[in-house]
Amino acid sequence: MKRILFLFALVALLAACDDDESFAGPSDKGSDSSDYVDSSQSSKNSSSSTEKNSSSSKKSSAGDHAADCKGAPDNVLCDTRDGQSYRIFKYRGLEWMAENLNYAMEGSFCYDDQDSNCVKYGRLYLWDVVNDACPEGWHLPYEYEYEDLFEAVGGMETSAMMLKSDTGWYVSDDDKGYGGKGIYSFSVLPAGHRQKEGWRGYYEETFDAFLWMTAEFDDGKTRSVVFTYDRKEPYFRHTDKERSVEEANSIRCTRGALEKITPIEPSGVTGTVTDSRDGQTYKTVKIGDQVWMAENLNYEYNEGSAISMCNDSIDADCKKFGRYYTWSAAVDSAGLFSIAGKGCGDSAWCELPRNFRGVCPEGWHLPDSLDYDELIRSMGGTFMASKAMKSTEGWTECDDPQSVVSNGTDKYGFNALSAGYTYTDGRTTSVGKYASFWTSSPSYEGPWAVGLWLTNCGKGYLTGFSTDREAISVRCLKN
Questions:
Q1: Domain locations in the chain?
Q2: What are the pLDDT digits (tens) for 282-292?
Q3: 3-state SS, residue 194
Q4: How many other C-beta atoms lie within 10 A of the C-beta of residue 384?
């Protein structure tokens, strides 16, 4: 099971036209690289034009447009320098531009020196001017702010799929390509970039997007984040300034600062819930404003390919670890309890509503990634939450001396057991090393969905699990 492990994630980015401070679900619209992407791909029809002295690189002579921006709605940034407006969204005290900056200034360019490309993609900016490019009160994003954004849409592993625009990205002759799904509103465009004079000129339109980031440390390197047509994940790029001094990339600006996460105190409120379908009773615990099952679900669900099973088919282990569910079983693809998830799972990729019941008892629902986000933030964020969630025994010793040791503290009573996971052929693996829980959030176009992943080495992640090959645990959340 291939995993690209990054920081513990959130999911589901706020639609840009929504002015709520918290993330909402999808809109109605349906690895760290040390230097550079491979520049040998001649099949991409790269631009070989040399630098031109285009009038588009001249600083804008526009005056103060504050009057033009008066009355702009809260979910729109109106740049008082030139009157241009940009969609924005808000999250954790931070606002993001949901479109590329298009402010004309010295050191900025339109792709191929064509004004129409500035309208389409925004402008490309030299590194020397990026710190002066954003509107007053806005700043060039930090790397950790992009990391938080990637976590918010399901983790680094698939975040490019969620953030890229759904049109404009190159697809190869054999239909290989990973353009965006158009689900969220960030809409990263394949604007390409401008490379140093005498090398490639304008380059990579439809294939790549390069977005500048703040150089947080003075290490002689520039920083950018790159999205490519053929990868599901973006990557961070740190490049020597001498190499990138004549390079021009796109910009998204941010305003504000991420709110500090402070862990809450355990509530001490516990209880039980009895599943009326089979009479089984589960412990529950209140964490923040949420009430969770404190045990893994053990309801037997077997409808066609939507199946659940015990560890190595041993019923006694079902009592200990609960059952392992394929995603089609977790979302009730047979439609036994609701119709929203009917037909989902295996290779069928579905968008499911919030508070979606799935296989959970009446009055409870299968958590989505936002629900797990709230849980993790209640516990203090990524690094603190993993240890606080894990049970105090049953985890094998971590074999990485640099990592946090195995067992958790179970500080809040969530009691995540190291149940491992099971393949659909019945083979259970990694008991003692991992705990994994389904969400109702698809990862990208099937057969993958998001699951919470805890390890014996102390970290937690949201990552993609195969919906037609793997069966993992389920925790239910009270409506």
A1: 42-256, 270-478
A2: 999 999 999 99
A3: strand
A4: 15
Which tens digit of pLDDT belongs to each residue from 423-446? 877 777 888 888 999 999 887 656
Between the alpha carbon of residue 470 and those of residues 155, 225, 429, the distances in Å are 19, 32, 11
273-276 contacts, C-beta under 8 A, 24 or more apart: 273/361, 273/363, 273/364, 273/478, 275/299, 275/361, 276/361, 276/362
The continuous run of DSSP H or E covering 336 comes out as: none
Q: Are residues 243 and 93 in contact, defined by beta-carbon separation less than 8 angstroms?
A: no
Amino acid, single-letter form, for residue 460: G
Cα 437–440–444 angle (5° rounding)? 100
How far apart are alpha carbons 148 and 12 in whole angstroms? 12
Contacts of 144 (CB under 8 A, 6+ apart): 258
Rounded Cα gap, residues 458 and 206, in angstroms: 40
* Rounded Cα gap, residues 426 and 316, in angstroms: 15
Model confidence pLDDT, tens digit, residues 122-175? 999 999 999 999 999 999 999 888 888 887 776 777 788 889 998 899 987 766
What mean pLDDT value characterizes the chain? 80
Task: Specify the amino acid at residue 380.
Answer: G
Tokens encoding 142: 């930090």
CA distances from 107 to 64, 222, 237 (A): 21, 16, 21
Sign of CA dihedral 302, 280, 357, 320: negative
Q: What is the DSSP letter of 311?
A: G
Q: Quick one: tokens of 439? A: 């969400």
Bridge-based pairing state of the strands 94-97 and 85-91: antiparallel
Cα(323)–Cα(472) distance, integer angstroms: 8
Q: Which two tokens stand for residue 121?
A: 């993609």
Q: Which two three-digit tokens encode residue 13?
A: 């980015």
3-state secondary structure of 265: coil
Are the C-beta atoms of 150 and 11 separated by less than 8 Å? no
With a threshold of 0.85, does the pTM exceed it? no
